[in-house]
Amino acid sequence: MSGRLRIAIGSIFVGIGVMGLKFLAYELTGSIALYSDALETIVNVASSIAAVIAIWFASRPADSNHPYGHDKAEYFAAVLVGVMIVLAAGTIFHSAWVGYHTVQEVDYSPLGLGINGLAAVINAGWALVLIRYGKRSRSPALEADGRHLMTDVVTSLGVLAGVVLVVLTGWQKLDPILAGLVGLNVLWTGWDVMKGSISGLMDEAASPETLDKIRQVIAAEGEGALEAHDLRTRLAGKLTFIDFHLVVEGSMSVEAAHDICDRIEQAVGKAVPGSRLTIHVEPEHKAKHSGIIVL
């Protein structure tokens, strides 16, 4: 079992534990704001399950139907997480609306608020684990899950601060208003997660920094070639697909040109982990004199 899959499975158990704590806090207080906070944890668990399925599928090797691998499955999971976050926001808005127009007994017990605070601390710690591991392993699903959890932490802290204001001011209407603000925050998070994942599904190019690194490696390691041009990249989960045209002298043997390609491929692989290169070799009359000049 890969490290990414173990982390993703761990998110399910953490999410279930936090969900139990938050619903217990709601039962002890009756606060609509805490209820909306608890509802979001259902989405956390569902998104963690989606991430496990996506990471498992993405880890499968390339086959005849998917010769480039299955890494893009993680982007679909991240989009699904975004959709579920938006649906959760709708549920929260409904609860806030009902709470604003009905009178409910609320008991802001220190125990209930303390339990909700403990859930926020657990979420914060696990969110940092997911974001750091997701970035290091280039896992869109794990990073999206971590960003969602971190937003949940900010939401929880905001709700707790607001509930304290309710206690101090005695203004009960503030409780459902806080729930509505939670819904707006959740809605924005859902959009942000989906937007980032859609970029991956649309074959977004590597960052300018990565492109510069690739150009430098080609220029330094392409001794024997004349130039490289039409450099293109696209991201697919942890993989970076790279292709370009390499111009060599027309009289150069196939074996010599292949040796240059091998040298460039090995150097780029070290500079850009997870890279997959396709190099199209061309004779010198195809040179554009506008690409990467080989040193």
UniProtKB/TrEMBL annotation:
InterPro entries: Cation_efflux (IPR002524), Cation_efflux_CTD (IPR027470), Cation_efflux_CTD_sf (IPR036837), Cation_efflux_TM (IPR058533), Cation_efflux_TMD_sf (IPR027469), CDF_Transporter (IPR050291). Residues 207-284 form the Cation efflux protein cytoplasmic domain. One of its GO terms (cellular component) is plasma membrane. It is found in: Cell membrane. Its main location: membrane. It is a multi-pass membrane protein. Gene3D superfamilies: Cation efflux protein transmembrane domain, Cation efflux protein, cytoplasmic domain. Keywords: Cell membrane, Membrane, Transmembrane, Transmembrane helix, Transport. One of its GO terms (molecular function) is zinc efflux antiporter activity. GO terms for biological process: intracellular zinc ion homeostasis. Signal peptide: none annotated. Residues 11-202 form the Cation efflux protein transmembrane domain. The chain crosses the membrane at residues 7-26, 38-58, 78-100, 112-133, 153-171. Belongs to the cation diffusion facilitator (CDF) transporter (TC 2.A.4) family. This is Protein p34.
